[in-house]
């Protein structure tokens, strides 16, 4: 299982598990043109984007984010593990090391959300909290109550703004 407590198989965790913080930091590492290290274009090429697609991404404000979004939408193997292997393939081990803790935290949160979705809350078939367990349910009139104490009732009023005057009049009467 991808989200087992003992070990996480990042190859089965979808890319959607990565939250905004990790994606922004990936952009901070990959967006600047760098003569020494691979940038977002090398990552996009490793993700099998064509030359024309890569040239079109150059016009966007954050090409790394756009590449991740489009890769996630079109590739069936767009997983966290695959992204990490692509970063390693383009020799950006610095990114993998720097963002590893953030990525694992996002994956852990994703797995928790998936587990909550898989385990819906238990619903008791009978709800007994709606029946009051106080003595006012024993009698409905003064003669029904052996002590002769008056019955107490709670009321809830739903009204619209145009009935506001009538509601105040009713409250005074009750």
Automatic annotation (TrEMBL):
Residues 119-145 are annotated as: Disordered. One of its GO terms (biological process) is inflammatory response. Keywords: Immunity, Inflammatory response, Innate immunity. Gene3D superfamilies: Death Domain, Fas. Pfam families: Death (PF00531). The keyword S-adenosyl-L-methionine does not apply. This is Myeloid differentiation primary response protein 88. InterPro entries: DEATH-like_dom_sf, Death_dom, MyD88_Death, Myelin_different_resp_MyD88. The keyword Ion transport does not apply. GO terms for molecular function: TIR domain binding; Toll-like receptor binding. Residues 25-103 form the Death domain. SMART domains: DEATH. CDD domains: Death_MyD88. One of its GO terms (cellular component) is plasma membrane.
